[in-house]
Amino acid sequence: MSIERRPDDRRPDHPRDHARDPRDRPRRLEVDEESVRKSLAGLVLTIVELLRQLMERQALRRVDQGGVSDEQIEKLGLTLMALEKNMEELREHFGLTEDDLNLDLGPLGPLLPRD
User: Tell me, what's the pLDDT at 44?
Assistant: First the structure.
């Protein structure tokens, strides 16, 4: 004995039934190239800024501990200033602000502390 099913009494939870309904298909995310480029640049610059700030703090610790010569202090200062200037230029190039790079980590607060 065989039971035939009519299309109108299909089970709604059957996987093949969902594939036939266009409303149940996965939606595609519409993005433009510029927003993807800016988002990727923001992510990369956030990581670079985090590393720059960590290097600056480490350099200050070394200076405070007294194990750095005056010449090394001068080089560190110039290097850190150049890095900060380069970051400003990159942010401007991609149309980003300092706040754009400071990810909100929810209950942990912002990723990048501002002095």
Answer: 92
